Amino acid sequence: PGPKTDQALHEVLISDVAVHRDKSAFETLFVRFGPRIKGMMLGSGASEDLAEDLMQEVMLTVWRKAALYAPERGSVSTWIFTIARNARIDRIRRQPVQPYIDVETVSIACDAPSAEAEMITGQHGEMVRDAIDQLPLEQKTVIEMAFIQFMPQSEIAQKLGLPIGTVKSRTRLAYKKLKENLEELR
Amino acid sequence: MSIHHHLDDASLMRYATGDLDPAFAVVVASHLAMCEDCRHAVHLAEAVGGDCLEHAPAAALSNGSFERLSRMIDADGDTDAVPAARHRLAANAGGDVPLPLQNLIGQSLDDLPWRRVVPGVQRHRIEMADTNGSLFLLKIGSGRKIPEHGHGGTEMTLILRGSYHDEMGRFAKGDIADLDEHVEHQPLVDSDEPCICLVATEEPTRFKGVVSRLMQPLVGI
Ligand SMILES: [Zn+2]
Ligand SMILES: [Zn+2]
């Protein structure tokens, strides 16, 4: 019997990539995440070529840095999300993503596993989805625009015809609620 | 280090999605480097991103996409990932200067080419590409007051040394004032040593009153 959840499966795959440089494990991850990474990049306004290219770059980083993935710091999908975010920033700005890398460096060097990380890793990955699903629709919309399409706050405001202050306060409320929901679900 | 003033939740979320202006990203990252609480908070926001990735719409990949990547990997040879232990040194070096700032100013706050803007106040500007705001360090003498000012846009101030207090409380090393445009305040430095802080502003801060206009060069373009 194999791993029970997607999350546990992803962890096994990434560890096979890290330890054994296992290409078929990597291909399984590629098939799982590649199309979604590309989907996010297209959603954020990238052209077909750029989205494909960014997706390839993200997956290449996954291959190269697989050994840096640490399950106690979050799920595989979370880790890949941050790689995708960084790749996108790197591409649209001349200012590199060094601040993000520095924070990760400090985090790896100094942080004890947090209650939050424990609660959202392991068998409990689906809890994050439950927590998001429990948000009021207007908050969920803002969160998904920001995270699935990397949409800037100013653009979300424009798209929804709302003042930017309202988008900000919905984001704040959503974050607070997510935290509460996760604590309740624990 | 006990930190009392943290990032606004909306800023955490913007950091997590990569939506911050580069100047603000440096201030946020510098606070994160000093604040374990906010690092955990960002991880939570990133977990939302992880879940959104799992549920993002799947796009069709171009023909031979995996084969192309596979060839890149083969060309790669055996590039092993950096062991985590190597990071420890970098993370702890620099004393007063958090890691994300070290890349921009080095490891010392004292050897900077500070420029006096008004008596008791010195500034060091940090040049950045792609920003709509400005990023600078301020060194304000003990007992000095910054005139009351409203903000033309958001403003983030991270204390690196010394302390000040204003309408919102006392700010010491590691504290961040993450303020939106509606805030007006008048910080007074209450530490014996000068207060050094890292500031990002979206637009030049507007000072009130004639005398205060003399302070415009403090944050102005
Ligand atoms: Zn904090
Ligand atoms: Zn201010």
Provide the descriptors you would attach to this structure in a database record.
heterodimer; A: 186 residues; mainly alpha; Rna Polymerase Sigma Factor, Chain: A; Arc Repressor Mutant, subunit A; 10 helices; 0% strand; globular; B: alpha+beta; Jelly Rolls; six-stranded antiparallel sheet; three-stranded antiparallel sheet
What topology emerges from the helices and strands here?
The complex is a heterodimer of chains A (186) and B (221).
Chain A: H1 6-20, H2 23-43, H3 48-65, H4 76-92, H5 98-110, H6 115-120, H7 126-133, H8 137-148, H9 153-160, H10 164-185
Chain B: H1 9-17, H2 22-34, H3 36-54, H4 65-76, H5 85-92, H6 99-105, E1 115-118, E2 121-126, E3 134-140, E4 149-150, E5 155-161, E6 164-166, E7 169-171, E8 176-179, E9 184-185, E10 188-189, E11 195-201, E12 206-207, H7 210-213, H8 216-219
Antiparallel strand pairs in B: 1-2, 2-3, 3-11, 4-9, 4-12, 5-8, 5-11, 6-7, 6-10
Helix pairs in contact in B: 1-3, 2-3
The complex binds zinc ion (2 copies).
InterPro entries (chain B): Anti-sigma_ChrR, Anti_sigma_zinc_sf, ChrR-like_cupin_dom, RmlC-like_jellyroll, RmlC_Cupin_sf
Protein name (chain B): ChrR family anti-sigma-E factor
Domain ChrR-like cupin (chain B): 108-201
Can you offer a commentary on this structure?
The complex is a heterodimer of chains A (186) and B (221). Chain A has 186 residues and is mainly α. Chain A folds into two domains: 1-112, Orthogonal Bundle (Rna Polymerase Sigma Factor, Chain: A); 125-186, Arc Repressor Mutant, subunit A (Orthogonal Bundle). Chain A is 75% helix and 0% strand. In chain A, helix 7 crosses helix 10 and helix 8 (137-148) crosses helix 10 (164-185). By secondary structure, chain B is of the alpha+beta class. Chain B contains eight helices and twelve strands. Chain B has helices at 9-17, 22-34, 36-54, 65-76, 85-92, 99-105, 210-213, 216-219; strands at residues 115-118, 121-126, 134-140, 149-150, 155-161, 164-166, 169-171, 176-179, 184-185, 188-189, 195-201, 206-207. In chain B, the strands form three sheets. A six-stranded antiparallel beta sheet of chain B has the order 1-2-3-11-5-8. Chain B has a three-stranded antiparallel beta sheet with strand order 9-4-12, with no helix packed on it. Chain B has a three-stranded antiparallel beta sheet with strand order 7-6-10, with no helix packed on it. Chain B is elongated. At the A-B interface, helix 2, helix 3, helix 4, helix 5 and helix 6 of A face helix 1, helix 2, helix 3, helix 4 and helix 5 of B. The structure holds zinc ion (2 copies). One zinc ion binds next to helix 3 of chain B. One zinc ion is lined by residues 3, 6-7, 31, 35, 37-38 of chain B.
